[in-house]
Design goal:
The protein is of the alpha/beta class. The protein has nine helices and eleven strands.
């Protein structure tokens, strides 16, 4: 008889669906129920982070899985994302979901409603100043998203410190200084008064979310405000491992475990 190494045995256990289900039901005591409201980040939570926002790979069946979860929750599913809503719609077609895009700078309260902006777009002059500030930093990429500016440095990790100091100086000089948020290999310039937490609180005041326990899943700094709002009202906050949350602090090792958790929820509700 061949006896595997401890590492290989651990790997076998990790791949065992029964063991995975035991782990995902034990997440901080948070068991998703049909009467809850679910708020999900997208990049790093439902799909793996890619070199650029355009390069993500959306797993086959993800849109259908989310549609089924949406139905099982009576419509109380919301995506909280840094992406513009139109971009998210393209990746998840034909699904239309309730969404807070650009960290809450855009809102669609119901799948059938139109998208509206919660704050004025970043001025063209600010974008131009950011472009000048990073022009000599090779590998740094700017993404203007209407109500925010994302400055990606995934391809230039060696300049992250210099980049951060330049952006801090830039926002400090603005007449109404915006926020500078550090994410997973990205800095985001956002107007004050915008966050995923503020968006969650807005959704919680409207049907079908009103009166439900909020459960939030995310992987990055921008999700922390939503975690705080959910936990303040007795909800749950679940973390996905990555550059921000270590595996020791996270509830999920990656997006594949989040998707398995959603599948498990549907199995339980269909019994």
């Amino acid at each position: 008889m061949t006896v595997g190494t401890a590492a290989s045995q651990d790997g076998d256990r990790a791949r065992n669906p029964c063991v995975v289900r035991e782990r995902i039901r034990a997440r901080r005591g948070v068991v998703l129920e049909p009467g809850d409201a679910l708020f999900l980040d997208f990049d790093g939570t439902l799909v793996d982070i890619a070199a650029t926002p355009e390069a993500i790979r959306v797993p086959p069946g993800l849109a259908g899985l989310l549609a089924s979860v949406q139905q099982a929750l009576g419509g109380a599913l919301c995506l909280l994302t840094g992406r513009p809503i139109a971009d998210l719609d393209d990746h998840l077609a034909p699904l239309r979901a309730t969404v807070a895009g650009v960290h809450g700078g855009e809102i669609r309260l119901l799948p059938s409603e139109v998208v509206y902006q919660t704050i004025d777009p970043i001025e063209a002059g600010v974008i131009a100043r950011v472009e000048r500030a990073v022009a000599d930093l090779r590998g740094v990429r700017i993404e203007a998203k209407g109500t925010s500016i994302a400055v990606h440095w995934r391809d230039a990790p060696q300049v992250s410190g210099l980049l951060e100091s330049r952006l801090q100086a830039l926002v400090a000089r603005e007449p109404e200084p915006p926020m500078l948020l550090r994410g997973r290999r990205v800095f985001e310039i956002l107007p004050r008064g915008v966050s995923k937490g503020i968006a969650l609180a807005d959704f919680a005041a409207h049907p079908p979310f009103v009166g439900r326990r909020p459960v939030v899943i995310g992987d990055d700094v921008s999700d922390e405000s939503a975690f705080a709002v959910a936990e303040r009202v007795g909800g749950g906050a679940l973390r996905v491992a990555g550059e921000h949350f270590t595996r020791g602090l996270a509830d999920f090792a990656g997006p594949d475990e989040v998707r398995a958790w959603l599948v498990d929820f549907l199995r339980r509700t269909r019994r």
